[in-house]
Amino acid sequence: MLITTFGSKRDMLGDWKIVNDSVMGGLSKGYFEMIADSKMMKFHGEISTENNGGFSYLKSEEKEMDLSKYDGIKLRVRGDGRTYTVDFQCDEQYDSKWGKYAVSFIHTFETEKDKWTEVSIPFDELEGNFWGQPLADRTFNKSKFNRFGLYLFDKADGPFDIKIDWIKAY
């Protein structure tokens, strides 16, 4: 099932946003742009580990969808040789001293510089996480999927550039 091609009328996710480590005093800069003629998204910028920084995060709007008939998510990407982390969210919440927050279900993948690859992420291999703290007792609820995110936090200074052609459930 097609989730997004970044410009199609059939896209199920949109309203993309960037969160950089500047929310914690870091100096990383991340950007995204839709490449309209090819209907893909480019996520790029510069990671800086200064001031305890080191990440940039691309996230979709919150939009619930039932993916219970599927085994996972697949993306077609053209990478830069860096390691990225997907972040899926559902209705699972973590009760912290600051309130209730969404649990992230993460999976890392390697990219090859300037090569298109398809990355398959099985739902049963996702790891529960809250702000870097593993939550081994949490299970991703694929019937309540509500956000897709892509992080770069590989602790390496320098530029990054990844293109996403499409996202599908398989």
What does this structure look like?
The strands form three sheets. The chain has a seven-stranded antiparallel sheet, with no helix packed on it. It has strands at 2-4, 17-20, 29-35, 40-47, 56-59, 72-78, 83-89, 93-96, 99-102, 104-110, 116-122, 127-130, 133-134, 147-152, 158-169. A hairpin with a 4-residue loop joins strand 3 and strand 4. It is mainly beta and 170 residues long.
Task: Please provide a brief summary of the model.
Helix content is 0%, strand content 51%.
Q: What is the beta-strand fraction?
A: over 45%
Which second-level CATH architecture applies?
Sandwich
Specify the biggest β-sheet.
7 strands, antiparallel
Return the string of H and E elements. EEEEEEEEEEEEEEE
Percent helix range: under 10%
Number of helices: 0
Q: In whole angstroms, how far apart are the ends? A: 7 Å
CA radius of gyration is: 15 Å
Q: Give me the CATH superfamily.
A: Galactose-binding domain-like
Chain-wise SSE layout:
Elements: E1 2-4, E2 17-20, E3 29-35, E4 40-47, E5 56-59, E6 72-78, E7 83-89, E8 93-96, E9 99-102, E10 104-110, E11 116-122, E12 127-130, E13 133-134, E14 147-152, E15 158-169
Antiparallel strand pairs: 1-15, 2-5, 3-4, 4-15, 5-14, 6-11, 6-15, 7-10, 7-14, 8-9, 10-12, 12-13
